[in-house]
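For the sake of transparency, this paper describes our internal protein records without simplification. Because each token names a local backbone shape, the row as a whole describes the fold. One such record is reproduced below, unchanged from the form in which we store it:
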Amino acid sequence: GQAGGDLISLYAEIQGISNVEAATALGAKRNDAPKTVHSVQKIPVETVMPIPPPGNVIAPKFKKDSIIWEYRDKSGNLLFYVERYLKDGKKQFRPHTFYKEVGWMNKMWPDPRPLYGLNKLKPDRPVLIVEGEKAADAALKIVSKTYDVVTWSGGANAFKKTDFTPIYGRKILMWADADKPG
């Protein structure tokens, strides 16, 4: 259950610090780094909601041939991106979240995470919950006259990290993936 998908996040997990603090600490350990750095200052990291307008913020760098999904709040303001691309023939997912102190980071939105499709919810309609943004977009094309369609970020194992309060009290149909996690 430990994190650590890259060296910085692994170091952060082992030390119990944020990725920003880990990057700072590892930079200080380099041979050419100033020798006077002995400790890492705690840097509070907060997401920005919504993201500032594109003229004020440079967009994150996406890989070539990526599919990008935008997570938006109920008013349509951009919150974060999820990027899907292929690496060695396998699906890879990378979140892009804007943090006030450091800009774009390849880090997931903090829990509880918003639903994908919040900005498309209509009042008093039943909701179809599917697994994955690709499935949500496909389902919306088929059932948009009957259902609002939403999903959560992070796959089947991240279901509990999501804020489902925007759809409480509605009739819900869940359509799981036909795999073991689903």
In short: Confidence is low (pLDDT under 50) at residues 33-43. Helices lie at 7-15, 19-29, 133-143. The beta strands are 67-72, 78-87, 90-99, 103-105, 127-130, 148-150, 172-175. The longest strand covers residues 78-87.
